[in-house]
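Exam prep: given the inputs below (a chain plus iron/sulfur cluster), describe the expected output before reading on.
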Amino acid sequence: MADLYPVNETFLSWQGEGVHLGRKAFFIRLQGCPVKCAWCDSASTWHPQHVPKDLRRASAAELAAEAAVARPEFVVLTGGEPCIHDLTPLVAALRDVGLSAHLETCGAYPIAEGLAWVTLSPKWAKPPLPASLLRADEVKLIVETAESIARWTEAVGGVWASRHVWLHPEWSQRAQPEVLRAITDHVKAQGAPFRAGWQVHKPYAADSLDQRARPPAPLGGDPGKGF
Ligand code: SF4
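Solution:
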């Protein structure tokens, strides 16, 4: 029997961030992430209190067939951290039904071949592999404080290989004037590859309109709470 993927949720929505913003997309959120960021907005993929008890397991062919019914422009493989799973069969199954696969990853684990688009959002708890940074079509930096952009730029040796480096306010800081000002100042000073970003699907609540989507785990932004 083919390997089964642990599936946290699937849903039809639109891509809420990055270069492909606003495009119809089918999301496959796989279960599990060993990185455990303090402010993770997918805490249900790893936090003991939020890991679903009724975890679905599905084959690559089953997931591809479900995605095809939704007739999206592309499929987003996300998590958790999807690259802890062998994505090769899933990418191939999607290709067999005429769908391209996009990936959202922290970049700390090897990236499968055959993906049409890779979004890499590096995390301090487990920094990205150099090869993953080179592969990324776009980078999404989570700006937690005004210093985050300079810290990450220094961490990669001052050079970003990707043509698009999005600066996203960490969601619990999205109204912090210092964080927004740091992003604005940086884009105005540097220009490309930096771009000011936002998670547009959240105010729309676009994802949760699909009944297959799980209610989001509470956003903590509080390491004391574990998420
Ligand atoms: S790497 Fe991503 S999925 Fe994993 S804990 Fe951090 S934000 Fe959440």
